[in-house]
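Internal ticket - ligand job 102, flavin-adenine dinucleotide:
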Amino acid sequence: MGLIENLTQSLGADNVLTSEADRLFYGHDVFRAGELPAAVVRPGSVKELQAIVRAAYESGTPLVTRGGGASYTDAFAQRRAEGITIDSSRLKRSRSTRRGRP
Ligand SMILES: Cc1cc2nc3c(=O)[nH]c(=O)nc-3n(C[C@H](O)[C@H](O)[C@H](O)COP(=O)(O)OP(=O)(O)OC[C@H]3O[C@@H](n4cnc5c(N)ncnc54)[C@H](O)[C@@H]3O)c2cc1C
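stdout (structure tokens):
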């Protein structure tokens, strides 16, 4: 099973975007585009994010992270055609680990 099928199984088809329109949108910043990502993945938890990073590492697949996409300096542009773009917009909760300390 390929990386994208593997990620579709763990994240669900709604969170693994492979249409050309989605890849063009997430691969383009305010001014410019890099290589078209092979897929855009949208983790909803740290566990899902870890699964993506592990699978990408094991398959030697480049990863870039996209936040709000407001950059205009190629900051999340893919350098290689088979790369995966992580859309972090579903990772909305932040948790402090500094218990009891300001
Ligand atoms: C109209 C306009 C005005 C602007 N004005 C300013 C300004 O006054 N000052 C200023 O500093 N910037 C400004 N910017 C630039 C923009 O705010 C910055 O580029 C900012 O980083 C964009 O945040 P973002 O979440 O959209 O990040 P993105 O553009 O999505 O990504 C920017 C970088 O952050 C990394 N990144 C994003 N999310 C994560 C994550 N969760 N974990 C790890 N890495 C991550 C990406 O990989 C990429 O390298 C402006 C942009 C626009 C379009």
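Auto-summary: The first strand starts at residue 16 and ends at 17. Residues 46-59 form the longest helix (14 residues).
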